[in-house]
């Protein structure tokens, strides 16, 4: 049972409000920052329903996510802003800014986005991840539910717990945090390479567009192809998506469709 001191106030600052979502070993809450009078997100490692190894992995992932977000503070990559990291009863907590809006999985279920709009949002994600790769990191958990869309139509990548430094091909380490439907074979083997994010972006595109055009199918196939046949960089994938969006804009003038 989660215990909150001082009437649900964590660390003497964050008043817990509601549960946003729960994973196997993490719980995400909305909370009020009593110092700055603003709504924030607090992520906690869970103990209930987790064995010792899973709990240790959840704790490590949460601490690691905080370190990654701190590195991104001065960068131009849209991500939740790191606020604070603390422990309660030996359990780690991470406080970060709340991203207003809905994630792409929610918007897909509600059928509120056209294919053209989905591609425009994913181009933004490509741009952010391209910069991330230039900094020497991979996100490693790109999927519809981890892409928030703000009211100003900006795409923000969330959930950085699986992010890692890019390592040389063949350098494998046992860290199993990933979503199986979107993970590359290389990531399953423990490799941290830019191709992991390219593969996940391709799977995300496939999940979001139920009736893709021939051109879009070709992009998805190249993004999710085996290593060596996949896009060589996120920039290449971004450029192909941008060309398709531009072509769709042109053909729409003649009441045709490219995507």
In CATH, the homologous superfamily of the largest domain goes by the name: Transferase(Phosphotransferase) domain 1
Q: Structural class of the helices, strands and pairings?
A: alpha+beta
> What is the CATH topology assignment of the largest domain?
Transferase(Phosphotransferase), domain 1
Q: How would you write the strand order of the largest sheet?
A: 1-2-3-4-6-5
- Proportion of helical residues: 25-40%
Largest sheet: 6 strands, antiparallel
Total beta-strand segments: 11
SS element count, helices: 8
What is the count of structural domains?
2
Overview features:
Transferase(Phosphotransferase), domain 1; three-stranded antiparallel beta sheet; 259 residues; 2 domains; 38% helix; 20% strand; 8 helices; alpha+beta; Phosphorylase Kinase, domain 1
């Amino acid at each position: 049972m989660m215990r909150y001191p001082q009437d649900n106030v964590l660390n003497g600052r964050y008043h817990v409000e509601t549960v946003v979502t729960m994973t196997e070993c993490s719980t995400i809450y909305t909370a009020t920052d009593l110092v700055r009078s603003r709504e924030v997100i607090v992520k906690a490692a869970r103990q209930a329903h987790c064995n010792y190894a899973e709990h240790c992995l959840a704790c490590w992932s949460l601490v690691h996510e905080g370190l990654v977000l701190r590195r991104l503070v001065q960068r131009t990559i849209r991500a939740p802003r790191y606020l604070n990291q603390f422990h309660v009863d030996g359990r780690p907590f991470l406080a970060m800014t709340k991203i207003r809006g809905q994630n792409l999985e929610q918007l897909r279920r509600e059928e509120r986005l056209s294919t053209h709009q989905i591609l425009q949002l994913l181009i933004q994600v490509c741009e952010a991840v391209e910069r991330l790769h230039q900094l020497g990191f991979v996100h490693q958990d790109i999927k519809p539910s981890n892409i928030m869309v703000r009211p100003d139509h900006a795409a923000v990548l969330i959930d950085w717990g699986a992010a890692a430094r890019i390592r040389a091909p063949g350098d494998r380490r046992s860290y199993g945090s990933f979503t199986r439907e979107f993970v590359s074979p290389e990531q399953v083997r423990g490799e941290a390479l830019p191709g992991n994010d390219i593969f996940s972006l391709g799977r995300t595109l496939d999940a979001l567009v139920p009736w893709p055009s021939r051109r879009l199918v070709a992009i998805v196939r190249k993004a999710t192809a085996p290593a060596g046949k996949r896009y060589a960089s996120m920039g290449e994938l971004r450029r192909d998506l941008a060309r398709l969006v531009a072509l769709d804009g042109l053909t729409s003038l003649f009441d045709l469709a490219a995507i």
